[in-house]
Amino acid sequence: MTIRLPHPDGTLRAYEPRTEPLTFTTGAPLTSRTVFSAAHVVADPYADTTPDSPAAVDWDATLAFRRHLWSHGLGVAEAMDTAQRGMGLDWSGAAELIRRSAAEAKAVGGTIACGVGTDQLTGPATLDEVRAAYEEQLALVESTGAQAILMASRALAAAARSADDYTTVCTHLLRQASEPVILHWLGPMFDPALEGYWGSSDLDAATSVFLDVIAAHPDKVEGIKVSLLDARREVDLRRRLPQGVRCYTGDDFDYPELIAGDEQGFSHALLGIFDPLGPLAAEAVRALDTGDAAGFRNLLDPTVELSRHLFQAPTRFYKTGVVFLAWLAGHQTHFSMVGGLQSARSLPHLARAYELADGLGLFPDPATAESRMRSLLTVYGVPR
User: Fold this and answer.
1) Cβ neighbourhood burial of 378 (10 Å; 0-12, 13-18, 19+)
2) Each residue's pLDDT tens digit, 120-145
3) Are 5 and 15 in contact (CB under 8 A)?
4) Which residues, in sequence order, are CB contacts of 8 under 8 Å at separation 6+?
5) Cα 316 to Cα 193: distance, rounded to the nearest angstrom
6) Residue 67: Cβ within 10 Å count
7) How many other CB atoms sit within 10 Å of the CB of residue 35?
8) Cα-atom radius of gyration of the chain, to the nearest Å?
9) Reduced to 3 states, what is the DSSP secondary structure of residue 250?
10) Measured distance CA(283)–CA(281) in Å, rounded
C-alpha cells in the first residue's frame, strides 16, 4: 500500500513503505572507537505549558531512550544541544536531567558525559559571572560521577572582548576540573550567538587559540568535540592535537569518512545524528572493531543523505527531525517537544525525513511508523 507524501514543490507523490526493518543486535561497548550519541529529551505532552514555560519532561520515556542507546553499546552525551539546551530546556531542567541520567548510567553500567555551560545566566554577564556559572555546572556534573563536556557559552561569547578572555576562562576551568574533560567547539550554524568564538570569525585564528589552550593543559583535556561541519578543518585540527588528546567528530555531514579515518588517524564520535541512527551506527562501528572498514562504510555511508536533510539550514532546528523520528520509531507516544519546537520544520521536510529513514530500515515496526505518518498527514489536511 502506498502513502502520499507532500514535496517542497507542493505536489503529492506516492511512496511505498518497506515492510521489514533491518535487525540490529544489542551488545557490549564498542572497542575501536569511542562513540557517544547526543540524546534528545521527551516532552510531557499533557503538561499545561507555553513556549516560555520551564520544560515539562516525561522522565520515564527520556530515561528509557537512554537505556536503548546504552543497550547497543553507545555512550550518551547528556544535556547537550540535542537535548534542547537553550532551545526549550533551561538550566534547572538540564540539572535534573543530568542527575537522573547519571544515576541511570550507574545502574545499568552505561557510559555518560554531560554538558557544562552557563545557561543559568539569563542576561548580560561579566567574565567573573560567566566563570562562576561554569563552575556551578562543572561541580554538579562531577558530583554525579559523569565526565564533563565544557560547552561553548553564549554568555562568554557576549562578554569576551578578545581571545585572551576565552583563554583565561577556559584555563581556569581546566585547572578546576578534577578529571580530564571534553572541550566542545560548537559552530554558529548550530547557534548563531556563538559567531566569533575563541575571539575571531577567522577560523584559522580561532583554531590557533583553541589549540594553544589544549597544548597548555593536555592532561586536563581528554578530547575535543568539533562541530563546524568542515571535514577538512577537522582532519587538520586532529592532526595537530597533543599526543593522547582525542578528536570527537561532531560533523553530521561527513561522519563516516571522519570516523573511518586515514593513515594518520581517525575521529571518535559525539553526534546528534546517532540519536536516530543509534543501533545502525553501533552495528557499523562493530564492523570497524573487526577491521572491516568496507563493511563500516557500506552500513554508514547510506545514512548521510538523511543526516544532511535533518541538519540542513537552519541547522539548529535539526532537533525537530530527531524527535519526529523517535516518535515514528516507537520510542515515544507523541510528536511534541519542549518549547513547542515540533513546529520548527515543515511538513514536506518531515515527510522526506520519514521517507529516508524508512528506506534505511530504521523503524523497528514499519507499520507503526507508517500509521503515525498517516495520522500526521491527516492533521495537516493531506487527502488520502
Assistant:
1) exposed
2) 998 899 999 999 999 999 999 999 99
3) yes
4) 346, 348
5) 11
6) 14
7) 28
8) 20
9) coil
10) 5
